[in-house]
Amino acid sequence: MLRFCRGTLWIGLIFIYAPLVILVIYSFNASKLVTVWAGWSVSWYVGLLEEKQLINGVLLSLRIAFYTSLAAVVLGTLSAFALTRIPRFKGRTLFGGMVTAPLVMPEVITGLSLLLLFVAIAKLTGWFAERGMLTIWIAHTTFCSAYVAVVVSARLRELDLSIEEAAMDLGAKPWKVFFLITIPMIAPSLAAGGMMAFALSLDDLVLASFVTGPGATTMPIEIFSQVRLGVKPSINAIASLIILVVSLFTFLAWYLTRRAEKRRKQAIVQAMSVMAEEAAASR
Q: Which residue in 31, 143, 219, 231 could disulfide with 61, CB within 3.0 to 4.6 Å?
């Protein structure tokens, strides 16, 4: 049974990561034909400096993904806090369904509904008459907040409420308990939700294609438009750089989270030892 599980795990890992490894290898291909190997070369990485449109799309996608991750973490955390800390309120079932609806809603329907919303607002108020970075950011925030809410809700349900109750018994205001006690305890889930929102926003094609406008071409839209005419080696190069950057940030976030968790456990052990010593001395 153990061999079967290990074999299944390795097959799954190879199935997931083998295409990425092949993409990175072919980004160093000297041939202009993607499927024909002609030796090692870094010419396509150097040639990225001339791909102004592709670089602009990457920068725009990174900016939108950064703003989306921040907004999604704020909205998702507030939604998760309302669902987990307020057991009963009018419309709770409807609110919970609306929070998680983007998880199961097809992106085509979500994108079309947002497009119609922006068009209606533009007719009534004049806002969003020219769709671009702002409309993409709103669409991505709407979509990614649901994922953050689910991740943070799972963490909030595992917390020990006695710590927060003890802080309020000592005179701390609810907002102070939230920022000084609750937020640090759910920091790993906030980081995970933010990284997930960043990745989903960076990868999105369907929503952005509905709500974008002239002059706001994201990286997925630009790559998709170029791939329809044939895959160029420069696309492999930019994709390899993105994989490298995302991997480095993921490793850094994992390392910082692990170190913070280790410090927290050491602080708990020290506090318990101090309490044990004080109890022994009082006897």
A: 219
Alpha-carbon torsion angle 139, 70, 147, 241, nearest 10: 90
Other beta carbons less than 10 A from residue 189's beta carbon:
23
CA 33, distance to chain mean position in Å, is: 34
**Separation CA 229–CA 210 (nearest Å):** 21
Between the two ends of the chain, the Cα-to-Cα distance in Å is 54
Each domain of the chain, given as residue ranges in start order, spans 1-41, 51-264
- Main-chain dihedrals φ then ψ at residue 127, nearest 5 degrees: -75, 155
pLDDT at 76 over 90: yes
Shortest CA distance to 251 belongs to which of 239, 240, 262, 259?
259
Q: Residue 154 pLDDT more than 70?
A: yes
What totals of helices (H) and strands (E) does the chain contain, helices first? Answer: 13, 0
Q: How many CB atoms lie within 10 A of CB 260?
A: 14
- Asked if 217 and 60 count as a contact pair (C-beta separation under 8 A), the reply is yes
Using N-to-C axis directions, what is the helix angle for 52-85 and 219-227, rounded to 10°?
130
The DSSP code for 106 is: -
- For domain 51-264, say whether CATH 1.10.10.10 is its number: no
